[in-house]
Known about the structure:
Elements: H1 15-28, H2 33-38, H3 42-55, H4 63-77, H5 80-92, H6 97-100, H7 114-127, H8 135-145, H9 147-169
Amino acid sequence: MPSSFRIPRNDMSSPFGRVVVAICRRLYGEVPDNAYVLAHDRKVAWSVFGFERKVARWDALDPHLKAFAVMATAATIGCSWCLDFGYYTAHEDGLDLDKVREVPRWRESTVFTPLEREVMGYAEAMTATPPQVTDEMSDNLREQLGTAALVELTMMVAVENERSRFNAAAGLASQGYSDVCELPLAPTSGDVGR
Length: 194
């Protein structure tokens, strides 16, 4: 289902828009739908793009755990755009796609380790409204990951909440990024049998 663009697509004909198009095409092969929306406000767009460049350099948390947490967050919110793009970035980063594709149904899947399950449970608990994170969850993860990695995990889930909620509110849907990957995402547990 294509994006509905509750906030209209920017036509990208301004000098700023042309720069955004050039950068996005170089990085992703096409312009992400959220860039068309963000380009309406140059200050917001530059702030988001700059922050995302910095987020990409965080390295205290294992990349697989980070991908699982991000995608579990997107699945909880229901952001198909973020799941699609998350699968694409996992593919580009050389992560285990057999596991990544199972994230939307991680509770039923048998491919995840206990730690990976704890990370995805933490992401879901953080994403709930109100948040459902417990002292036990935090203590267990800090013991297994270390404090710096737990801080990064917590911030990654918070960042993905911002991304997914923005994209969902803007009416953005899967754009086909995961089509470059050979395996589609597994359906979420709520989609099984439909």
